[in-house]
Amino acid sequence: MLDVAVEELSQFVRFDAMLAGAGTRDADGAVVITQVLGCHQIAPAFIAEYPAVAGEDVVGQLFAAYPRIVQTISVDDYHALSERETGSVAGGRAGRMIANYLRKHGFEQLMLAGVDNSFGLAWITLYRHDADDAFTPADAEWAKHLVPGILYRWQRASCQRQGVELPSRLLPLTTREMQIAIMSAQGLLPKTIADRLDLSTSTVREVIQNIRARLGISGRKMTADDLERYIAAPPTKRQPPPIVLP
Question: How far apart are CA 66 and CA 167, in angstroms?
C-alpha cells in the first residue's frame, strides 16, 4: 500500500521522503503519534525523536487545530515564526529546536496535509532536502485533493487488519453532542455547559439523557471511560436517531 501511495503522490508532487501517521491531540494541543501508517526514506530515529520536540512544533499544533489546512514550510520559517514574536525567548527556543531536529535528518522543506474523519486524526508529511526547493501552491493544491483519499484507504485497511469496528457503527453523535458528552463526563453541570455553548439548559439536559441512553448508563454519572469504551466497541443495533442541534 505504501508503494501505491508513493507512486500516486509522486506523479504530481516531487518529494524526497514521506511520513504518514495517525494520532491524537494532547491537552496542550500537540500531536501525539500513535501509529505510523507508512514511511518512505525516513529513518526510525526521526520518528523516535519527535515526541521530545512535539510540544514546540508550531506547525504540528496548527495541524491539530485545523487538520484540513495544507501547510508548506521551510526550516527557515521556523526561525522566522519565533523571531516575529519580539522578545519571546520561549518562541525563539521552540523555533530553533524544530529547525535543528529537521536539519539533523537532512530536511529543509516540508508539506503537511491531513484529515480528521471518523477514523481519527491522520496526516502525510512530504519532505525535501534542498533548502531552495520549496513546495509551491500548486503542490499544496494537489496534496489537498490527493492526501485525504490515500489516508482514508490506509485508515480503513488498518482498522480492518486490527478487527476494529468501521465508522458506520461507531458512536453516532454530532459534533455538538460530543462536546456536551465530553463536558458532562468531565463533571460540568448542565447549566455550565449551556452557558459555554450558548444553549438552553433544558436542551443540554435532553441531549445528556439521550447520550446516557445510548451508552446504557443508568443510576450514575457519565464518565470519560464510558465514552472511550463506547467509541472502541460497536453500539447496539437499535438506537434512537441523533438529535440535530442548531
Answer: 21
Interstrand relation of 17-25 and 31-40 (parallel, antiparallel or unpaired): antiparallel
Q: What distance in Å separates the CA atoms of residue 172 and residue 221, rounded to the nearest whole number? A: 20
Claim: this prediction has a pTM higher than 0.85: no
Residue 125 is placed in which grid cell?
A: 508529511
Provide the 3-class DSSP secondary structure of residue 163. Answer: coil
Measuring CA to CA, how many Å separate 219 from each of 90, 183, 213?
Answer: 48, 19, 11
The C-alpha cell at 187 is 463533571
The SS3 assignment for 23 reads strand
* Structural domains of the chain, ranges and CATH numbers in brackets: 2-162 (3.30.450.80), 171-232 (1.10.10.10)
The parts of the chain modelled with pLDDT lower than 70 are: 81-92, 159-175, 227-246
CA distance 33 to 21: 7
Q: Measure Cα distances from 78 to 108, 119, 130, 176 in Å.
A: 11, 30, 16, 35
User: Could you read off the pLDDT of 31-63 as tens digits, one per residue?
Assistant: 888 888 889 999 999 999 988 888 888 788 888
